[in-house]
Amino acid sequence: MSTSIERRLELKGNDVACYERMLEIREFERRTNLLFAAGEIRGTTHLCVGEEALNLGLATVLNPDDVISATYRSHGISLAFGLSSHSVMAEIMGKSTGCAGGVGGSMHMCDSSVGLLPTSAIIGGGMPIAAGAALAFQIQKKQNVAVAYFGDAATNIGAFHESMNLASIWKLPVIFVINNNVYGEYTRINLSTPIEDLHIRAESYAMPHAKVDGMDIYAVRDAMQEAIDRARSGDGPTLVEAKTYRFSGHSRADQGLYRPEGELAMWEKRDPILLTEQALTKKGQLDEATIEQMKATAAEIVDAAIIQAQNDPEPTVKDMFSNIYSSQKVG
Amino acid sequence: MRFRQAIVAAMTDEMKADESVIFFGEDVAVAEGPFKTSEGLLDTYGPIRVRDTPISEMAFTGAAVGAAMMGMRPVIEIMFMEFLGVALDQLVTEGAKMHYLSQGEYSVPMVVRASCGSGLGFGSQHSQTLENWVAATPGLKVVQPSDAQSAYSLLRAAIQDNNPVMFLEPRILYAERGEVDTSLKMTIGEARVLQEGSDITVVSLGNMVNVAREAIAESGISAELIDLATLVPWDRQTVLTSVKKTGRLIVVEESPWSGGWGSEIISYATAQAFSALKCAPMRITAPDVPVPYNGTLEARYVPTSSNVAAALTLAVNKNEISQPWWITEGAN
Question: pTM surpassing 0.95?
Fold first, then answer.
């Protein structure tokens, strides 16, 4: 069984491994959806289908000792960052073996070994925290960076503007990454926001910004690398807008029936897994037989994770009372 | 020294003892704080550790959470407790949950200092105590000093604590003088028995401790005065021991009648010491109104020593409790 950090590092410089991880995420979300639909898991869930290239792009340009504050749409980013399908599925099922011990659930993943801060279920909630992590790195004279990773709708909340402003005046090593998947919960972005390109909001904060095709892992990496280099060299924050598409509804209850006709079909032609597959095939790194084999492997991994998680123990009442306060003494 | 100087002294000593302690907020660095609670800090510790922020409570409260998770020990200043309203998410929904959601992998050693309370003519949006906003958040500790000594000792304890701590400073006390022994330690979660007495227990917090002390002197009653000092987690044992001894309980609080922390104290003490009680426990609170600006009305708003003295006398001499003044006077 690989550790999170091993699973993270095996992606570095290995695009085929990234492709395989995307397949794992896609299969994980497919099965998660079925489990919720069958009533086998309680609560709610938010799927990230269509956002796999962005997740993998972030995971491969950041180092495990960098940190990210991500959101309740947490499964894909967690798997990309190195968490196992079992660890994430067990958390979704509320089992003691989950990455948050079963007290978190689908919206709250965490693994400090790969810099995944507890993911927030509050839109915009993670941005000030990423800025603060970056402040610590700056004061400690470390080379690490922090990433605030959030959706398009979060650019309309105060935390976005306050954090961007603070990061800019203090030149913090933080990268703000908008996952513009077109929908904020049930509402299309054009109904909530008067501009199409959200990254231009960085102009107000004298902050460098970039727009990138979030379906293209290579483009994501290039844009992110530039931003990370800027942050590591002390030149402050960047706002990166990745254009993606949320193939699923907002959450479990949402079938996405409000989408304009044909929109999903149009975006499915730009499926990030399909694009990666085409690029790697063109480079001679993948062929049809290998792809089939990899899809079968992804299905096996996820299936085994589900079975294991289903058989795992529940947390105890004692666990409910653990880790409310840190009892660590200072000095 | 003055109460505000005790704050400065505690900050100075903690910043000296631990270089991971940093401090930021609005107007705290160059201007040294609107209430002069950071005098000399910028000069002594420099602009990396002592920072002015934009007027962005959400950003800098959350930045303290993030910095704390990465090994710093931030102290932030919320100029008026009401301003925490725009940043409450970062403290109660993010900061107070990080240790839990990470199974203890991350800790959030931060202190949110905020001035609070009525009495200075700041009006309805700058005069509330608001402990009740934060008291029902597991993961967060809440303390409130009542004099210069407790300001010094509790602030040092708060900064050394490995959890988010809400540190409420009664604004009306900033200029008050008191003896401060810098070697005296206070422990979060432990109340102070300021005066021993046999006939009634008076539990209070913040500036109401001083009102209660005056009331006890005015009434001549043998009362045991407990300064709760920490609201979360509050010292159940000290209160219970005292109530079992005296058989009577009055809680004096500056918050409004409904939803105040005193109900929590009375609920627990009544359930656990029911048979020891000689009369019904009571709360003396502010009324359920916004804090009025007019000086005469603001003075009526807050519990006074004569209110408290009358209640003490009635309880001890007749085993009776009175209705709030706004009911007996027919004001409402």
Answer: yes
